[in-house]
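Exercise: predict the fold of this chain.
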Amino acid sequence: GSTQATDFRPGQWVPKTPRAIKTAINNNGGFGVNGFYLPMNDSNNFGADFHCDPNSIITLNEKLPQPRVGVATTATAGIGYTDALRADPYACLPKAFPDDVSGMEQGVIVGMGNLYSSWDHDLLVESIGELKLRGVEPKVRWIGDGEDMERTRNRVAQLGLSRFELPGYLGWDQMLEELRGAHSIVFPIRNKPLNLARCPFKCFQFAQARRPVVTSDVGEVRSILGELATYVEPTVAGYADGILGSLRGERSEDVPYDLTSHRWELRALELSKALEALS
């Protein structure tokens, strides 16, 4: 069936089959169709998002405003709704990064992530050690903590890296300030099965910070940062060269990373295409 919805809030929606969505869109002139159904909806369940027959195709009233950027809310009749996930990148932090970082310490290389032995923060430590041998020792700050903290601190001391700071976890506001204020951000990542089988969530935060990123073309990193990051070989020498290059000159302009393709709506369409190809 088809239900005209004038008052609802985003819920746990399950995509209808692509063919059914296309049919609904065609029948409605391609306007106002949500293309979702709610198999768990129950008209007797007053906690349900919609009070209609289960598995109904939900169609927005054409007189309602179309979804737009904003805070997800429960709509009032005749107004429609706003849902930030419809337009904002899905993996971005729903927090404001500071614009004015003029008071931050200049020239700091920033890394961020859990200090677990399975990750690759050691590449940054060793590359700074390599730079010190070349006569260059930049200020470095790694934000994060974990079971590998003690070993990392010991290695920093062994290499005599007096300008390498390990403050542990920071509060949200301070962490976002550090990322925005960075001269450049370094994301060390090796080419290994563990890194090929994951999407590094922190890359979205690096893109939100809009600072130059030195990293490696491993797994899904390039799909998030695009061509605007500096990609180096995942070796100590590779990162040393990349960091040295980022240190040349004054603080650079912000980098306009493009995250517009990382939206729930577009991901759902890609999934729908894949499912349709299998049907």
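Check your answer against the key: Residues 91 and 204 are 6 Å apart (CA to CA).
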